[in-house]
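Help needed: design a sequence for this.
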């Protein structure tokens, strides 16, 4: 508080005012004078005073009446007012003074120390009150600024999520067409040169999908919204699948990829197979990218086993370019590679290792690195898993023998993208299911009212009426059939909020684009 507190001194005799001012001159306060009650009332209304020193006996309006009028102003209800009087010892004046609103009396002749002491107390109280008021105002301003900042951050987060969701949809939708076109072409017995071209397409689309997933996962980790699931899976099959996904590129570059899996590891373990796959693909992908000769070894070893739990140590060893000692910590930072020349020569977003490091950390592990420039690198980490009593897990391996189980199934495919319409149609035809096509939610709703389907495959983002709106309208129909009709969402989003929205609108499940035929089949077959 920078301004001096003001004291109003009210007395019809100027010399009395001067005497009081001289006594209080060392208190660092500003004095304001009033020579009458009416003047004092006006000043008290227009100006904020720390306190008032009021003479009782004045011509016209005395001090008692003046104080009563001052107290009528809400702003002056708690302001300290001290009477200056020679009649304090008479009970009549004591009672009248208190009733009028004064807090104290000082009798004439005035003893300076008493005046200074009483005024000092009220000045200190005033300064403290003003300090508290200023702090409250400051806190309210800070709270308001924080609230605005929070709202802006939430708006930015929503805009970012909307952008990422849209980007995911716009990239994953054509990727779905590319990947599944390759899958369908491979089933048509192509010759060797065509298979090689298809492998290139498959590898390139998988690489693009990994970049998209990295960007989306980085966003989810940054927002603290990454989630993990627990499923049974065969570790050997998972690692073999990862090796096979890089075999084409490795063969082209004359590199050897080898798996070494500890025989003590149980056939089936329980954990997040999707995240483990993502971690290993990022690490193996980096190893392949930065290795020009030699090879890559993927190892999994049992480290510790206790009752139904097991710790498994994973190691990815390469004979690549290695990393300088002073750059090792840097490789785990977002959008960073060991050097700008690395980015120019080998490409990449610099996100893969940062995400991998975080995914390992969030599951209770730690990603570590040993590397020597020019000789290669070793990435290793340990993760906990539960042990399953099963010897294998049912997967898409039984797909070919179960194809005829979709015969007679009536499916409504709701999809605005013509290429994806054809992709899903080809799979359904192959599996001997019957189907109709609806190009948007409005057409889907009309068709669902005219014909009873066994299942609806519902895209979410479509013109005229979205999949969400169409599902909501279908579920709103009174017939019990519409309440129980299976509706599977075809979504390009991987965000938890979007998946929750799918179920909130009454859908039965979802398939994430790009999907493979196995995923599509097993999503449909239960119905």
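Sure. Designed sequence:
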């Amino acid at each position: 508080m920078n301004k001096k507190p003001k004291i109003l001194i009210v007395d019809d005799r100027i010399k009395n005012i001067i005497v009081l001012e001289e006594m209080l001159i060392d208190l660092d306060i500003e004095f304001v004078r009033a020579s009458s009650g009416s003047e004092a009332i006006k000043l008290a209304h227009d100006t904020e005073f720390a306190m008032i020193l009021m003479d009782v006996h004045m011509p016209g309006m005395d001090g008692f009446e003046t104080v009563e009028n001052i107290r009528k102003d809400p702003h002056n209800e708690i302001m300290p007012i001290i009477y200056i009087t020679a009649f304090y010892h008479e009970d009549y004046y004591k009672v009248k003074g208190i009733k009028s609103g004064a807090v104290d009396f000082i009798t004439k002749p005035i003893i300076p120390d008493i005046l200074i002491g009483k005024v000092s107390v009220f000045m200190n109280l005033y300064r403290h009150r003003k300090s508290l008021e200023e702090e409250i105002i400051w806190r309210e301003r800070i709270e308001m600024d924080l609230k605005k900042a929070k709202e802006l951050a939430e708006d930015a987060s929503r805009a970012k999520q909307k952008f990422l969701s849209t980007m995911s949809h716009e990239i994953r939708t054509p990727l779905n067409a590319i990947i599944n076109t390759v899958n369908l072409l491979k089933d048509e017995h192509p010759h060797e040169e065509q298979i090689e071209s298809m492998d290139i397409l498959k590898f390139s689309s998988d690489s693009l999908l990994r970049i998209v997933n990295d960007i989306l996962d980085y966003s989810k980790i940054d927002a603290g919204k990454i989630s993990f699931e627990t499923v049974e899976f065969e570790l050997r099959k998972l690692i073999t699948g990862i090796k096979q996904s890089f075999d084409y590129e490795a063969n082209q570059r004359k590199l050897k990829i080898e798996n070494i899996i500890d025989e003590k590891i149980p056939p089936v373990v329980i954990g997040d197979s999707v995240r483990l796959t993502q971690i290993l693909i990022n690490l193996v992908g980096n190893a392949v990218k930065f290795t020009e000769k030699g090879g890559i070894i993927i190892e999994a070893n049992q480290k510790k086993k206790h009752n139904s739990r097991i710790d498994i140590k994973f190691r990815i060893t390469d004979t690549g370019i290695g990393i300088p000692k002073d750059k090792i910590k840097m490789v785990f930072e977002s959008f960073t590679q060991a050097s700008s020349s690395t980015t120019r020569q080998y490409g990449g977003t610099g996100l893969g290792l940062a995400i991998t490091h975080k995914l390992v950390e969030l599951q209770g592990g730690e990603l570590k690195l040993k590397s020597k420039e020019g000789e290669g690198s070793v990435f290793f980490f340990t993760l906990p898993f539960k042990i399953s009593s099963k010897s294998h897990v049912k997967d898409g391996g039984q797909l070919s023998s179960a194809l005829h189980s979709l015969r007679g199934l009536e499916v409504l495919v709701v999809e605005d993208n013509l290429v994806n319409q054809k992709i899903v149609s080809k799979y359904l035809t192959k599996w001997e299911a019957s189907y109709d096509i609806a190009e948007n939610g409005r057409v889907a709703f009309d068709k669902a009212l005219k014909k009873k389907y066994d299942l609806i495959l519902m895209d979410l983002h479509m013109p005229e009426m979205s999949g969400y709106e169409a599902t909501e309208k279908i579920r709103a129909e009174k017939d019990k059939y519409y309440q129980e009709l299976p509706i599977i969402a075809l979504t390009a989003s991987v965000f938890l909020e979007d998946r929750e929205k799918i179920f909130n609108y009454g859908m039965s499940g979802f398939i994430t684009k790009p999907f493979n035929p196995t995923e599509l089949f097993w999503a449909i077959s239960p119905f």
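The two ends are 75 Å apart (CA to CA).
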